[in-house]
């Protein structure tokens, strides 16, 4: 049971590099928080400050209301799981899991009970006598989790715990971690740069860029209502298409134009552009590949917002196809039904759903609507 409070936390490394800037976050008990962002954005640094492995340059960190800036890592009641597992090769699975408890002089029978309990949760019961080298990657990862579980910590910190596993195992471990979260009712902070992991595991996601929080929200909210261009481009795969478009306002009617395409915005979106005085200005229009379609019915439904273009790339994903094309000088992607007749080199029509269009200010890169 633990809540965390990070107040205006900064990290300046001895060489003067500011890796984390004014980081504030309230984590509630039992939350599964994900830190996500491109390489070098400060995810691990923040996690290591929470663990006490890295000094906090300024700001305050509270665990369950207690200021812990100067509390030793071992006294923070936190367990960390790393991407390289950090198992002791000469010890059995049992001893690896028991190690931390032995150091804390926990009685032997209690250690046995706790290790067996964790082994049961993680399906490691039959492997307790093995050494790490006789385990698969996924099993090693589970031992690393087990070592954290036996300590019954207030908070679990996980730094890219699945990044060394192959794609299939990663998917399996992902659902195991999710189940574990429910089962333990633990507070987890999890670092990843894999946005599928972020979207499927997190109750809330913290998107970071250059040491600054860009947005904190539920996966769904980040996807549907990104606060800015960066979050819009980072969340979602393939990424959102962006194109510069001219805003025309005539009375209540607001349209965005690029090349020969005109997208007439629905009233709620139009209102935001009218209020912001965007008439005649260039804005950035964003539309996700899944919101551009080549089916006859969509083309008829959204007959005002059509792109006519050539297919420059065709990628079959299974039930869907990615069509690559160019519009207003930028490479764009549409994700359409795999039954599409469109093929490489074809001249096609694509329709944009105006309800799904995002509009960003070109200067500030903040979301207008
Ligand atoms: P990745 O996804 O690549 O692991 P990250 O988001 O976890 O990246 P951090 O490891 O937190 O990033 O690093 C943040 C920034 O701080 C990076 O630019 C990194 O080069 C820098 N950095 C990390 N450790 C130090 C250090 N000891 N001294 C100076 N700069 C450092």
From TrEMBL:
One of its GO terms (molecular function) is ATP binding. Keywords: ATP-binding, Nucleotide-binding, Transport. Pfam families: ABC_tran, OB_MalK, TOBE. GO terms for cellular component: ATP-binding cassette (ABC) transporter complex, substrate-binding subunit-containing. Residues 4-235 form the ABC transporter domain. It comes from the Bacteria. One of its GO terms (biological process) is carbohydrate transport. This is Sn-glycerol-3-phosphate ABC transporter ATP-binding protein UgpC. It comes from Roseburia amylophila.
